[in-house]
Amino acid sequence: MQIDVVTLFPGMLEGMVGASIVGRARQAGICEIRLHDLRTWGEGRWRKVDDRPYGGGPGMVIRCEPVYRALEAVLQRPVGPGTPPVSQPPRTRALLLTPQGRRLDQPLVRELARAERLVLLCGRYEGFDERIRRGLGLEEVSIGDYVLAGGEAAAAVVIEAVVRLLPGALGHEGSAEDESFADGTLEYPQYTRPPVFRSMAVPEVLRSGDHQAVERWRRAQALERTRARRPDLLREGGADAGGRREVDDGGSEA
Ligand code: ADE
């Protein structure tokens, strides 16, 4: 998978894309991630990318020209009215990170992970000139109902969630484990040594060596935890809802 990020602050993402699972996936050639500084396509000596809003009001608005030029350079083709949309699912998914977008969840992450190419456009300031929305055919995605100072942290979230699903990225049994969690429940509690820590013992069943009993315990714990913390997941994605909702908070490096 190739991932291109267009941002005013590539430095905010540099560390994240070089470390941990994402960094290893890059080194292993599982994904290629390129960070592009929007100012490269800015105007004039100061590489200006923003301007005051028509009609007045606070803050600055990202101008159309640098964004259109950036996407033309990244995609190597004309973009804008009269050309195909920049986002061409399923192979190319081009996202505008904004609190106004479709909420990111695990099903969307799985869809994105099937693409060959992701293009992520991060905003700053008061927003984008509306003609960026009108003319480009980007998919607007939000990581949650809160407002960040810009889209970089949101892009980092998308990248990490997607890259860990790419074949080979987890590099251990985690991927298979992941599939077994694709059933709409939160992960069961995990323990490692020591068997007793500050008077808190590891549940006996986990040390019993009885794999079936361990399996049953984990399943029950996962359901119980989901019922207690996220009953909405069971209602939305349960067998009787006719669809699967895939949530997992496991499969990380731990
Ligand atoms: N930019 C600012 N807030 C955001 C959010 N919640 N999701 C995605 N991009 C954003």
Description:
Helix content is 35%, strand content 17%. The protein is of the alpha/beta class. It has two domains: 2-163, Alpha/beta knot, CATH 3.40.1280.10; 178-248, Orthogonal Bundle (Trp Operon Repressor, Chain A), CATH 1.10.1270.20. The chain starts with a strand and ends in a 17-residue tail after the last helix. Bound molecules: adenine (ADE). Residues 97-99, 123, 142-144, 146-148, 150-151, 154 line the site of adenine. Adenine (ADE) is lined by residues 97-99, 123, 142-144, 146-148, 150-151, 154.
Descriptive labels:
254 residues, alpha/beta, Alpha/beta knot, 5-stranded parallel sheet, 3-stranded mixed sheet, 9 helices, elongated, disordered C terminus, binds adenine
In short:
By secondary structure, the chain is α/β, with parallel strands linked by helices.
